[in-house]
């Protein structure tokens, strides 16, 4: 029977290579209608970018603009009710944009707030802050509320107060206060839902203010702030960026006596900051943007002796280093992190700002060619082979429940061998996202774990919540029958790729939820794949047809269903499907500790290397043998087990016209074929051993005379049927195989 599994026990260890920093380029795009600095740029749900507020030499700018990534142009939209700069702009879950605080044309602090409605293109007033402020932060919380924290107040003072904006009521309410009043700080929403408030300035910012190294955490559940670890260096006008690892990267800024080149990482698990690589150019007023490949783009800013900075840098989380990338066409700086934003296509838009070379407030805008992220859909991924124990008794099975088995190391690097312009690497920020409708969506945060084992590998594991059993063979009297082995096939995988220049990065597996919300795993017995059992059962065949993928784009002559060639390829993952391998490959007694190809290594069954398979005595039930199977890490024993095969794939029609596919290998688009290499797993997820359970019941005795022999038939009457089995572990998939003793 087919089994559809929402979560399957699978551990995948990826051999990771460091990301290559490509020399990307900046190019001009359309100009703003109004030059401006100290404005905000917010990506709307439709992909457009709202430019709001700011100032130029004519004063504050009331008119807002929309950038259209498709046309590369800016158009005027509604105007702010109150022109302002040094404000914040936050995209709300309902699609509106919340504009908060700042200063007006008289340099007075503002308590007012406004909402921009993309449907009408207009700004309307909403509830006001309890305390007017600028140089504050506004952070969208996981519950949909917006936390407004700190900032500057009248007479150059700093605020400790914080407020929450409720989009449902359109009002602000006071929440807990910061431990230390501050402005020019950063606020970063962490993966755990808390908000990291870091550094900044406290006291009188006009004279005698204190630069802070302290940091705090806001807990939305309690509405309170608590202290956390301190930064290595105090700083203002700096950036803080949440990385894919969950850490926060802090870069640059200013602290007396000058501009900062050092960077730090905040680890939410330990609550501490640690040093990482330094910027090649010290700077403040710069931007930091997380790219689709996990790198961080540092652009623009201001440095002593240079003025506005044109050079841009990339931070590589794997290496912990910064390297130069392309330079801005116009050196510029502005309010930190408000004038650069990543577009839905992966490019980065940088708008306006100030250029010290001509003392200009800029109307120009530029695009950084960011990595294009997308996915393709292979028809299947083989995630494991489980081997049938001897005999058909209902008491004969192997259970892999709640274990961390069925793990392989997978590579698609040979897919690009025909295209010299591409190289392939794997980022360490591997996750298992759900993908659908042409874009990456949410993750299996509650069911997947991610463990960095070293700088060169990442393990992503799933764990079953119920037992998966592989039952025995079809006959008591012909117990060696590999047709009953089960090959487990994942039918809705997605491969996440990032294309950056000539560099292709595989970001790991995903789940195409067009099929079902979770992973669709089907177990197929070898006898159906090789035709020995006849036609594949209808329920399994329905799954193999993959009709849900009919709308995807396939290569010539291809379609969503698994073909006979696919099934034949899947069968080869069971080495006993190949007649030249066969059970005789294991060898007679004494057994080989390991097969010459290193695929199988002798294991134990409750400390014993073998178990018995014997017929019952007359009028008695056959004994049931049970034991615990233990898989041992074989990384030192088997490093050369590989299985290479080619398979077709499709692409989601939502990606058919995007930059992702236009940059993806033309050879791949034409042939729609991947070449996979599946290697021996070098370790078992988070532990060095993993267990399963075995239950085996031998043949019954159907005797002619009650309580007397002989049995009809007599098992092993000629001495050529196995009565003992060795236990071997499969070093490719982490499962167990049972080889007969003295059978040959």
Quick recap of the structure?
The chain is mainly β and 744 residues long.
Q: Determine the structural class based on helices, strands and strand pairing.
A: mainly beta
Shape: elongated
Total E-strand runs:
62
> Overall mean pLDDT score?
80
Count of DSSP H/I helices: 5
CA-based gyration radius: 31 Å
How much strand?
35-45%
The main sheet comes to: 12 strands, mixed
Helix content: under 10%
Distance between the termini: 33 Å
Low-confidence stretches: 1-23, 402-467, 634-639, 679-689
Give structural notes.
- The protein is mostly beta strands and 744 residues long.
- 4% of the residues lie in helices and 39% in strands.
- The chain has five helices and 62 strands.
- Strands 1, 40, 43, 44, 45, 46, 47, 48, 51, 52, 58 and 59 form a twelve-stranded mixed sheet that branches.
Q: Secondary-structure blueprint of this entry?
A:
Blueprint: E1 10-15, E2 26-28, E3 40-43, E4 49-52, E5 55-56, E6 59-60, E7 63-68, E8 73-79, E9 88-91, E10 97-100, E11 113-117, E12 122-126, E13 137-140, E14 146-149, E15 162-166, E16 171-175, E17 186-189, E18 195-198, E19 201-202, E20 210-211, E21 215-219, E22 224-228, E23 239-242, E24 248-251, E25 254-255, E26 258-259, E27 263-267, E28 272-276, E29 287-290, E30 296-299, E31 302-303, E32 307-308, E33 311-316, E34 321-327, E35 340-342, E36 348-351, E37 354-355, E38 360-361, E39 365-368, E40 372-378, E41 381-386, E42 397-399, E43 407-411, E44 423-426, E45 433-436, E46 439-443, E47 448-454, E48 457-462, E49 469-471, E50 486-490, E51 493-500, E52 503-512, E53 521-525, H1 526-529, H2 538-545, H3 564-571, E54 600-602, E55 604-605, E56 610-612, E57 624-632, E58 642-651, H4 659-663, H5 666-671, E59 673-679, E60 689-697, E61 724-730, E62 736-740
Parallel strand pairs: 1-43, 44-52, 45-52
Antiparallel strand pairs: 1-48, 2-39, 3-4, 4-7, 5-6, 7-8, 9-10, 10-11, 11-12, 13-14, 14-15, 15-16, 17-18, 18-21, 19-20, 21-22, 23-24, 24-27, 25-26, 27-28, 29-30, 30-33, 31-32, 33-34, 35-36, 36-39, 37-38, 40-51, 40-58, 41-50, 42-49, 42-60, 43-59, 45-46, 47-48, 50-53, 51-52, 54-61, 55-57, 56-61, ...
